[in-house]
Structure formats: C-alpha cells, structure tokens
C-alpha cells in the first residue's frame, strides 16, 4: 500500500500565491515495503574494476590481506560475485527505527527557482544520528 | 557517539605513532579522513581483537547504502516518475553509490537513462583533478593499494566545512565508473553550496549537512539550466543528513567569515609525489 500524505491534492502557499498539484510533497513506503537486500553493482558492470594490490608484492590482494583490518564477513561481501546480499535480521531491526526514509518533492524550492524541473530528494536526516550513517 | 557507548578521539591523536608525529609537526593539524584511516588501521594491526568499521570507499560500504536507492526507486514509481538526472555528493562515495547504484542497474538494463553525476568540493576535487592510479587508501601508506582517482595520499584538504568529503582519494568503484564514462563529475566551491543550502532551508525547511549542500547546489544548477531550456527534467538527489550538528558552519556563512579556497595545481603535484610508482 502506498501512503501518500496529501495524496489527492497538496496545497502549497508560497510567495503569497497558492498552488495546487497532484504530486504530494512526501512519498512514503510502508515498513513492509522496505527492501531486504543490498545491491552489489560490481557483477553487472561491463568491465570489472581493477583489484586492490598488496602494498609489498603489488600482486592482487586477497581476503587474508584484509583480515587484520576487517571482519571476515565484510571481506566476503567486499569480494562477492553475488548481485544481492540478504540484509541480516538484526540490521533490519535497527533500520526499522527510521526506515523506510521519506522521498520529498521540493515543490517550494522549484517555485523559488521558477523552474520547470521537478526536484526530488531522498532524506536520510530522519535517522537517529541525523545522517545516512545511521546509528 | 559517546552517549551511545563509543569513545571518541579527535584525529590526529596521541594514540598512534603517526598521530603523534603529525601533532609534533603541527599541534593544530586539521586532520583528514586519510589520516584518521591510518590511525584506525594502526590500532587494528596492534591488537588482534580490534577490527575497523569503515565509513566509505570500499565496495561493501557502498553496497550497504544501496537501500537508499532501492527505496527511492520504489517511491518514484509510486508517482510515475523516472529520473533524468541524479546528483550525489562524493567524498569516499558511499552516499553517492547508495543512491546511484540501483538506478545504474536500471540504466544498464535499458529501463531508464538518467545522467548520473558526482558532485565534489572544489577544495578536494578528487575525480575532476586527481589522477587515476594505484594509491594508498590512507595517509601513512598502511592499506592495500587501490586504483582510484587520487590527489595523493599526503594531500590534506583545506578545512572546508564538509568534513565528510575531505578525502584524498575516491572509492575505487566510483573511480572505475567515472573512468569508463558511466558517471559524470563536477566540483563546486563551498560558498555556492551554502548559498544553495540557504535557499533550500528557506523553502523546504530542512537545514542540510555541509556534505549534501554540494548535491543541492548541483540540483539547483540543473534546475536553473531547465529554466533556460524549458526542459521539464526530473532531478533526484540524496539529502544524506541534516545540519543540526553543523550550525557553527552556517554561523560562519551568515557572518561572512566563510571563504572559498584556491587549490593551486602545484599543491596537487606536490601531494602526487607521495603516490607509489607501480
């Protein structure tokens, strides 16, 4: 189910003028619509990015070279050929503190700029920490 | 962060040899993401029970942010919109990749054809002025070498207010996309960014963090071009955080104390000497 705020008509009042539009300011997803997988773009690319190199040998770096720095599960994700990774349940539980985040249509900014463009912004400031890096 | 259980140290710190060296040279050292990474790596190497939660640059970090773009795809579909232009700020690439990669997937599948544009600070123009070559991900030369657009691992960006964008390199993945022509890049100075953020705050209400002011300024440039051309483009951007923790930056802007920094080519050339020859 979609959940538009002001779905039928949004009334804007800007600069002393009143404007109506059929496109809402806020576009929300239900919690149940939150994606449950991360997308790995690398396997879809026409050419693979050059590999990281061991700083001493200049040979392609393998998982063992990253092991002192990162947990092995993250190293596996770093090098995975899979297009999608299931988001762990514990992470989904934390995401639900603020996700899905809203998409906004910047009607009032468009009006100020007097532009025919339609500007949308995905707002990550709703997370507890106030940014995309979450909690 | 400490309220949530972390212990926070300002980098460069007294905790690592590299940090102490830098502080001895300059007690007021402004630090950089590259220096902070060096210190984090040094602490991992010194203690087998310590691991590093990276905040950007590597593939898995960008992948973890793709839920942003996946949600945005579903949301735009609800209002029957397809983006013509995507703009995202880039420091290490996580916000940009998070928004852009799901749309890039749709573009590669022929379902849409948006222009996808990175926006970086003019004071740290990694993609637009850096070289594409193997370099260290940190300033002390401790990480594996990564092929990326770099200004040189010894490059310390001027203390612009978008601290999250003050990185000498760029995500190898975003660098590869730029090198292969799949994404574009521009740089914008911070005064234009904050001017755009003021327009945004005074219309949309939200005070943006300094990092996404770059994306907002780019969106405004695109919208102004649409006004000239009459094109009704759909512009999508990510406002990756609010600026409530950055009000001191706005105070500097409003009081006229904020400045743009010139970045002479000689400064980049000097830092590029730190890049290893492979």
Q: How much beta of chain A, percentage-wise?
A: 15-25%
Strand elements of chain B, count: 6
CATH architecture heading of chain B: 3-Layer(aba) Sandwich
CATH topology of chain B: Rossmann fold
**What's the multimeric state?**
heterodimer
Q: Briefly note the structural class of the backbone of chain A.
A: alpha+beta
Number of strands of chain A: 7
Low-confidence region ranges of chain A? 1-11, 13-20
Distance between the termini of chain B: 40 Å
Jot down its keywords.
heterodimer, A: 135 residues, alpha+beta, 2 domains, two-stranded antiparallel sheet, 4 helices, 7 strands, 19% helix, 20% strand, elongated, disordered N terminus, B: 278 residues, alpha/beta, Rossmann fold, four-stranded parallel beta sheet, 11 helices, 43% helix
Q: How would you explain this protein's 3D organization?
A:
The complex is a heterodimer of chains A (135) and B (278). Chain A has helices spanning 63-66, 72-79, 89-95, 107-113, and strands at residues 10-14, 17-21, 26-27, 37-39, 84-86, 103-105, 118-123. Chain A starts with 9 loop residues before the first strand and ends in a 12-residue tail after the last strand. Chain A is α+β, with helices and mostly antiparallel strands. Chain A has a three-stranded antiparallel β-sheet with strand order 3-6-7, with helices on one face. Chain A has two domains: 1-36 and 87-135, no CATH class; 37-86, no CATH class. Chain B has 278 residues and is of the alpha/beta class. Chain B has a single domain (59-272), classed as Rossmann fold (3-Layer(aba) Sandwich), CATH 3.40.50.1100. Helix content of chain B is 43%, strand content 13%. Chain B has helices spanning 17-25, 33-46, 59-64, 66-78, 94-108, 126-129, 172-179, 190-204, 210-229, 247-254, 265-272, and strands at 85-89, 115-121, 131-136, 145-150, 184-188, 234-239. In chain B, strand 1 (85-89), helix 5 and strand 2 (115-121) form a beta-alpha-beta unit. At the A-B interface, strand 4, helix 2, strand 6, helix 4 and strand 7 of A face helix 2, helix 3, helix 4, helix 5 and strand 4 of B. Strand 7 of chain A pairs parallel with strand 6 of chain B, so a sheet runs across the interface.
């Amino acid at each position: 189910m979609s959940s538009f705020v002001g779905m039928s008509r949004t009334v804007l009042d800007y600069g002393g003028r009143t404007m109506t539009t059929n496109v809402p300011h806020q576009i929300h997803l239900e919690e149940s619509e939150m994606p449950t997988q991360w997308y790995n773009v690398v396997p879809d690319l026409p050419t693979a990015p050059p590999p990281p190199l061991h700083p001493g040998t200049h040979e392609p770096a393998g998982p063992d070279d990253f092991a002192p720095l990162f947990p092995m599960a993250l190293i596996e994700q770093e090098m995975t050929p899979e297009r999608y990774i299931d988001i762990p349940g514990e992470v989904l539980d934390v995401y639900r503190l603020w996700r899905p985040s809203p998409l906004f249509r910047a009607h009032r900014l468009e009006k100020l700029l007097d532009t025919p463009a339609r500007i949308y912004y995905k707002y990550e400031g709703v997370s507890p920490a106030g940014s995309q890096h979450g909690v | 962060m400490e309220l949530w259980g972390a212990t926070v140290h300002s980098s460069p710190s007294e905790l690592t040899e590299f940090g102490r060296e830098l502080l001895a040279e300059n007690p007021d050292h402004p630090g950089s993401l590259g220096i902070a990474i060096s210190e984090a790596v040094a602490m991992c190497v010194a203690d087998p029970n310590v691991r590093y939660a990276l905040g950007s640059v590597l593939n898995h970090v960008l992948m973890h942010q793709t839920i942003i773009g996946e949600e945005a795809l579903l949301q735009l579909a609800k209002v029957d919109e397809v983006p013509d232009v995507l703009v995202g700020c880039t420091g290490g690439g996580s916000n940009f990749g998070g928004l852009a990669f799901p749309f890039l997937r749709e573009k590669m599948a022929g379902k849409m054809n948006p222009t996808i544009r990175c926006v970086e600070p003019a004071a740290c123009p990694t993609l637009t002025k850096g070289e594409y070559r193997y370099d260290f991900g940190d300033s002390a030369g401790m990480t594996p070498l990564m092929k990326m657009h770099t200004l040189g691992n010894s490059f310390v960006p001027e203390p612009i207010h978008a601290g999250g964008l003050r990185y000498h390199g760029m995500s190898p993945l975003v660098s590869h996309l730029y090198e292969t022509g799949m994404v574009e890049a521009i740089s914008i100075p911070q005064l234009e960014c904050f001017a755009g953020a003021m327009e945004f705050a005074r219309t949309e209400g939200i005070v943006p963090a300094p990092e996404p002011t770059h994306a907002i300024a780019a969106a405004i440039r695109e919208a102004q071009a649409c006004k000239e051309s009459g094109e009704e483009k759909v512009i999508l951007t990510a406002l990756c955080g609010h600026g409530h923790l950055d009000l001191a930056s706005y105070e500097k802007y409003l009081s006229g104390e904020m400045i743009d920094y010139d970045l002479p080519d000689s400064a980049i050339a000097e830092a590029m000497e730190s890049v290893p020859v492979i």
